[in-house]
Specification:
The strands form 6 sheets. This protein has a 5-stranded parallel sheet with strand order 3-2-1-4-5, with helices on both faces. A 5-stranded antiparallel sheet has the order 12-15-18-22-19. It has a 4-stranded antiparallel sheet with strand order 6-9-7-8, with helices on both faces. α1 runs parallel beside α10 (293-299). Helix content is 30%, strand content 27%. It is built from 14 helices and 22 strands. Bound molecules: adenosine monophosphate. Adenosine monophosphate binds at residues 118, 142, 144, 154, 156, 186-189, 193, 272, 283-284. Residues 118, 142, 144, 154, 156, 186-189, 193, 272, 283-284 line the site of adenosine monophosphate.
């Protein structure tokens, strides 16, 4: 099989790594890929959001299977375009991808199917109406841009001035682009967060191993939100009773609801949950794998990824094929100085070879670029140092040992990935 992976971050490097390991695969392209993907596959130039460009690329390469990493091509309809030509592709159609592409669509879907989530105060198309609703909400209130905003579209506001500033940025200054023209307001929930990701062919589904992401930039969940500073996976994250509750009250009603609404959903579905004292509630859906959760999940993979994804695209998923390594995994993200604010690119990265020599470690690249025979930084989140172990402790020890081998100017990373998981299995970070 020849496989095309769309995207260029750490998630896509992890996909390329595991697809390349498949006995059925003899070529993997990654569009556009990054400085590290080249070691596991071939990078080809592409704009991942441009459906026409991706069609032309696939026409030229002729992949047997295409796997979509990021949300933008999905929301832009890349799956519809490929399927129309009879090409095999993994990911939801444009209609199904609205579960991520529109927060209002999602909230209406959740309410219609009785799936627990935060209560909604309303959705507004004008700044005046949005300011007005602030007089009648309970604090904290959560404000969500309806459309895609590259991870910047959600604010948990504790008071009015903060909320007003966000409304102004979204609706008056147009800082978030078209995705921020409509805002939805909902109740603030509290509890531990958990990511539940599944793979479905539209009929059957298989859950992936549970993971937890670390969104804030600094230790102890301090500082601003980021795209994710690390993740870990261990079976203890999801005790059987909790898994059963989530399956019965959220996962199965969601898949049933999609069918009832006549929406065929194929691919990865990411369910972001808040474990509140009144039970698990949906915070968001993503129509693809998370980053850096993917790195932690795929490190534990013990099946042929290409084979299973080919089954999904052919609508014949066999959930029992998904097998996982026992124990745990961890991914520590090494970030550029200043991230998630302003940062400089082009810093030489040293120590990659030394880190790669360590057992059970894989250094997955995100924001990197080749510069002659050097690898330099080229993004905020630069590397995802990923390791597996018999226990969470051992996976973390190996990941941090490998991270300690790597250096670039301004590099910073969290020292407490998975710390909570080590202390207590059922509580969050
Ligand atoms: P979303 O993109 O909707 O998941 O929002 C991003 C992050 O905002 C989530 O991972 C949560 O940390 C937080 N968040 C979203 N909705 C809520 C809510 N209703 N209550 C509290 N926090 C929330």
């Amino acid at each position: 099989m020849k496989v095309l992976v769309i995207g260029g971050g750490g998630r896509e490097h992890a996909l390329v790594w595991k697809l390349r390991a498949s006995a059925r695969v003899d070529e993997v392209w990654c569009a556009p890929g990054n400085g590290g993907v080249a070691a596991d596959g071939e990078c080809v130039a592409a704009d991942a959001g441009d459906v026409a460009g991706l069609l032309a690329l696939a026409e030229k390469l002729g992949p047997d299977l295409t796997v979509v990493g990021p949300e933008l091509p999905l929301v832009n309809g890349v799956v519809d375009a490929f399927e129309k030509r009879g090409w095999l592709i993994v990911g939801p159609t444009k209609e199904a991808a609205q579960l991520e592409g529109s927060k209002v669509f999602t909230k209406e879907f959740l309410v219609r199917h009785g799936i627990p989530s935060a209560a909604m105060y309303g959705a507004f198309d004008t700044a005046e109406a949005a300011y007005r609703v602030l007089d009648s909400v309970k604090w904290p209130v959560v404000i969500k841009a309806d459309g895609l905003c590259a991870g910047k579209g959600v604010l948990v506001a504790t008071e009015s001035a903060e909320a007003r500033a966000f409304i102004s940025r979204a609706m008056e200054k147009n800082e978030f682009g078209p995705g921020g023209k409509r805002l939805m307001f909902e109740e603030g929930l509290s509890g531990d967060e958990l990511s539940f990701i599944l793979l479905t062919d539209g009929e059957r589904y298989a859950p992936l191993v549970p993971t937890r992401d670390h969104k804030r930039v600094f230790d102890d969940n301090k500082g601003p939100n980021t795209g994710g500073m690390g993740a870990y996976s261990s079976d203890e994250l999801l005790p059987d009773v909790l898994r059963e509750t989530i399956t019965k009250t959220i996962i199965e009603p969601t898949l049933r609801g999609l069918k009832t609404d006549g929406i065929r959903y194929q691919g990865f579905l990411y369910v972001g949950l808040m474990l509140t004292k009144n039970g698990p509630k949906v915070l968001e859906f993503n129509c693809r794998l998370g980053d850096p959760e993917t790195q932690a999940i795929l490190a534990r993979l013990d099946f042929d990824l290409a084979d299973v994804l080919d089954d999904v695209a052919r609508r014949r998923l066999q959930p029992e094929k998904l097998k996982w390594k026992p124990g745990a995994s961890a991914c520590v993200v090494l970030a550029s100085g200043g991230y998630p604010g302003k940062f400089e690119n082009g810093k030489e990265i040293r120590g990659l070879d030394e880190a790669a020599k360590l057992a059970d470690v894989k250094v997955l690249h995100a924001g990197t670029k080749r510069d002659g025979d050097k690898i330099v930084t080229h993004g905020g989140r630069v590397l995802g140092v990923t390791a597996t172990g018999d226990s969470l402790d051992s996976a973390l020890r190996k990941a941090y040992e490998a991270a300690g081998q790597i250096h670039f100017d301004g590099m910073h990373y969290r020292r407490d990935i998975g710390r909570h998981g080590r202390q207590s299995s059922a509580t969050g970070d």
